Amino acid sequence: MDKDLTSDIMISKDTTLKPLPPTVRLVMFLILIPALCSAIEVNCSEPTQPALLEALTPIFNMSAIRPVVNMTTRTNVSTFFTLYGILGVDEKSQLLITYLWLDYWWKNELVFWDPNQCGTDKISLPRDKFWVPDIVINEFMDENTAPPVPYVYLYSNGMVHDAQPVKVVSSCNLDIYTFPFDIQNCTFTFNSYIHLAMDIMIFLGKSAENITKKSKNVMTTMGEWELLDITSHKDKYGHDDGQYIDELSFHIRVRRRATLYVVNLLIPSCFLITVDLFSFLLPPQTVDRSSFKMTLILGYTVFLLIMNDLLPITGNTIPLINVFFSLCLALMVTSLLETIFITNLLSGSADFSPLPRWVRVFVLQFLGCLVCLPQKTKEPKGSDIKFSTAMAQRKADEGPPGEMMLVAEGKAVQELRSLGRDLQAIRLQVEQQLCGSKSSKEWIQCCLLKVKPSKVLFIFISVLMYASCSSIMLNCSQPDPPSLLDALRPVFTLSSIRPVMNMSTPTNVSIDFILFGILGVDEKAQLLTTYIWQKLEWRNDFIGWDPDQCGSSRITIPRKLLWVPDVVINEFMEKNSAPFVPYSYVYSDGLVQDEQPVKVVSSCRLDIYTFPFDVQNCSLSFNSYLHRMAAMQIFPTIPVEEILKFSQEVMATMGEWELIGLSVKKLQLPASDGEPYEELRFFVTVRRRATLYVVNLLIPSCFLITVDLLSFLLPPKSIDRSLFKMTLILGYTVFLLIMNDLLPITGETIPLMNVFLSLCLGMMVASLLETILITNLLCGSAHYPPIPRWVRLFVLHFLGRLVGLPQKPRDLEDTVFQNPAAQDIKVSFLVAEDNQAPGPKGPLDEDKALQELRSLGKDLQALHNQLKKQTSGSQSSEEWIQ
Ligand SMILES: *[C@@H]1O[C@H](CO)[C@@H](O)[C@H](O)[C@H]1NC(C)=O
Ligand SMILES: *[C@@H]1O[C@H](CO)[C@@H](O)[C@H](O)[C@H]1NC(C)=O
Ligand SMILES: *[C@@H]1O[C@H](CO)[C@@H](O)[C@H](O)[C@H]1NC(C)=O
Ligand SMILES: *[C@@H]1O[C@H](CO)[C@@H](O)[C@H](O)[C@H]1NC(C)=O
Ligand SMILES: *[C@@H]1O[C@H](CO)[C@@H](O)[C@H](O)[C@H]1NC(C)=O
Ligand SMILES: *[C@@H]1O[C@H](CO)[C@@H](O)[C@H](O)[C@H]1NC(C)=O
Ligand SMILES: *[C@@H]1O[C@H](CO)[C@@H](O)[C@H](O)[C@H]1NC(C)=O
Ligand SMILES: *[C@@H]1O[C@H](CO)[C@@H](O)[C@H](O)[C@H]1NC(C)=O
Ligand SMILES: *[C@@H]1O[C@H](CO)[C@@H](O)[C@H](O)[C@H]1NC(C)=O
Ligand SMILES: *[C@@H]1O[C@H](CO)[C@@H](O)[C@H](O)[C@H]1NC(C)=O
């Protein structure tokens, strides 16, 4: 049927063209039929595969062109896929890694056969013998590492079925706000990389529900991610001039299985928080609560370390879990500070001045009522007064010296008096201590209160105004693609030379690109990884045809058949692992448009001085690797502002880096042989989104520094402050560890952040050393010789006044204490005298009483001396400490 129709048309065409005698006409028809009638009916000599292959051989010569009879016919590619596995998500670089079975169907209009004649209705043949559409997934950023499948099926009606597995590493804007309970909505956009909609259209081959169902059936892995659904979406463009790239997008929703994160991160951190809260039950007097809490915080920083490894740094949102962790840390730090404060009060408030009246009234009575603090039963104030009056009375009783008393009696009374004095002194001392502890209790109560628990529409610049100069005119025998291909064949043989007629004419190459993604920066290796859509344009002087004669003004042919300029990016350090796109557009005036995606791993001098608030300025220098200026010149196609605008529009991911600027400079540099070469240098300016670094690094380290500073409030006597500080330093090294992973080792500049962290560490170490010194003084200074006079003068009086140190009220008996040895001698002399003079002076009874009293007095005096010695020791130690 088909054949009859076409031959009919051919005949009519022939008649209109040239009226010829019927016999000649018939001969011509027979000769011309393969070329004229483009859909070649393949005739098999016998119904076997080899015969079919032989019959198909002419078709293979036309694999370079899109298999259509009329260039205005669109090739409709229907596509679907099965999601076989979700391999993972890389939050840091915002990538989704999946494994797909892709299916494409399209029609090859150049071939059909009779299934009965050839014995089969389909045959599998190597893919490279056919034209295949250059369908790519736009978000695909990496090499396809799935095993290659080299065959396609060809059906008798010309349909081609191409199926292949693809490991897709696609960029996806990951929303990690609700991590680990997040659902990600990732997009796969299928489109032809270079063909416009007037050449290739994409259709859905299977309903999205069926794709979802099939995918859920075949998916065998039970990994971190679970497929929810797949929906499809096709943009409808109002105008249908075909000057756009047709695309079909699928939205894939996947959900994270959060159990492991809950078990590994959330539950332990809840445990830690619970422990922290319950640690208030620890009696602050007996247990070192602050060291305990510090260790808890150390445990917590380890969690922050894990989070830092897991989560991406995106500018817009901070994940809730990070907020949670930071809040937990803040809570722990405040509770630690509170503990330090309380411990300080507990041990230090005895030396404080009594609680001011207004504080006592306000806090204890007013706030205390609010939180139902049990009212402290006040000791009746009278007792103090009573006591002092009693003292006074007693003094009055003792007061009058006994003139009227006897000498013997006088001795006993003297003894008694000295005894009384000793007792009084002891009592006073004890009372002082008691009094202090009472005021301290009030302070503590006062404080306990507070703390109860597109893809862009491809800009089609029709640069068809080029004057068709001296270039070769190609003549098509027929206005159809196969004859155009035939006409182009001589050009393909010239693909190894630069396509100019006169070698002294330079080839002008125009360059532009769209920055589709910033995949990351490797500070250690000083690399910037970007993904660009690169576009080159140049003129091929060997090509030129009449669009009317050949039926089309443009054609896509494989790049490898043409000469392509050796434009490289100088900073490029690795092989291009972007998906391979084989075709280029060729226009009837000789203009060649070559586009391909490039994953650029470029070296860049990274300036990390202001990390994490750094802005990097990296260059991408396009130049010809070999050709000098006389042979090749390089120009930008469109203004750099437009490149910036388009790039910011299409950039889908909100990763760590944000594109903020682009500028271009054209340079002429001398090559080694003296001839200059041209270079187009683009400066890409990117800024780091610092929020997460601030939350994860800066704020916690500020917390730790605060803790370190306030830890001086800890009483050095009762608590092992050095242990506490050591734990703090240990926690700090965790931060240094994170920084070490992040930052490069460059010789010249040290990042400010590192300086900050090092300063903090230095401060902590200094304070630890100071603590060690103080602890040493505290334990040992009582045995030290008394502080030298000049030190005391200089430090206590001079420096003390400078820093407002409270002057210690000197004891009245200071002079006596300054020479305890003399006192001892006096005492022992007295005792010896007493021993030497036993009682022959008085009556026997009185003597006995006197002796008793004396021995008692001796005991008391010894006690008193002991006490004095201790006090003096502690005073000298206090002086040392001060
Ligand atoms: C194939 O056979 C048909 C008739 O069976 C004939 O009309 C046609 O010309 C043949 N085609 C080729 C390429 O030989
Ligand atoms: C295919 O093209 C090659 C040259 O490219 C030619 O030698 C060969 O004869 C052609 N085959 C057919 C069947 O046209
Ligand atoms: C191709 O198709 C267009 C419109 O469909 C038609 O105008 C043109 O004549 C056709 N060309 C050939 C060579 O058949
Ligand atoms: C391709 O799809 C377009 C739009 O649906 C349709 O008009 C055209 O006929 C189709 N072409 C073929 C060859 O099926
Ligand atoms: C996924 O995102 C696309 C746009 O990015 C949106 O059109 C679609 O509705 C989203 N799907 C779901 C289920 O939210
Ligand atoms: C989906 O699958 C069902 C049966 O599996 C089939 O009947 C239906 O036609 C399919 N729908 C599409 C749009 O392919
Ligand atoms: C194409 O045809 C023109 C005349 O129509 C002729 O001058 C020219 O040489 C031909 N070119 C080729 C490559 O045959
Ligand atoms: C090539 O061009 C140069 C200058 O444009 C000219 O001097 C020279 O004659 C040309 N050579 C040929 C073969 O046309
Ligand atoms: C290439 O560019 C130079 C400088 O702009 C211009 O003089 C020359 O004509 C251009 N060559 C072509 C083939 O366009
Ligand atoms: C980037 O650096 C180049 C030279 O090193 C300079 O010309 C350009 O202005 C810089 N760009 C920005 C945004 O600083």
UniProtKB/TrEMBL annotation:
Residues 63-257, 496-689 form the Neurotransmitter-gated ion-channel ligand-binding domain. GO terms for cellular component: postsynaptic membrane. It catalyses: Ca(2+)(in) = Ca(2+)(out); Na(+)(in) = Na(+)(out); K(+)(in) = K(+)(out). It is found in: Postsynaptic cell membrane. Its main location: membrane. Keywords: Cell membrane, Disulfide bond, Glycoprotein, Ion channel, Ion transport, Ligand-gated ion channel, Membrane, Postsynaptic cell membrane, Receptor, Signal, Synapse, Transmembrane, Transmembrane helix, Transport. One of its GO terms (molecular function) is extracellular ligand-gated monoatomic ion channel activity. Residues 265-388, 697-826 form the Neurotransmitter-gated ion-channel transmembrane domain. It is a multi-pass membrane protein. Residues 1-39 form the signal peptide. It comes from the Eukaryota. InterPro entries: 5HT3_rcpt (IPR008132), LGIC_TM_5-HT3 (IPR049944), Neur_chan_lig-bd (IPR006202), Neur_chan_lig-bd_sf (IPR036734), Neur_channel (IPR006201), Neuro-gated_channel_TM_sf (IPR036719), Neuro_actylchol_rec (IPR038050), Neurotrans-gated_channel_TM (IPR006029). The chain crosses the membrane at residues 258-282, 294-311, 323-343, 355-373, 690-714, 726-743, 755-779. It holds the Pfam family Neur_chan_LBD. The keyword Transmembrane helix applies. The keyword Cell membrane applies. Coiled coil: none annotated. Forms serotonin (5-hydroxytryptamine/5-HT3)-activated cation-selective channel complexes, which when activated cause fast, depolarizing responses in neurons. Belongs to the ligand-gated ion channel (TC 1.A.9) family. This is 5-hydroxytryptamine receptor 3A. It comes from Dicentrarchus labrax (European seabass).
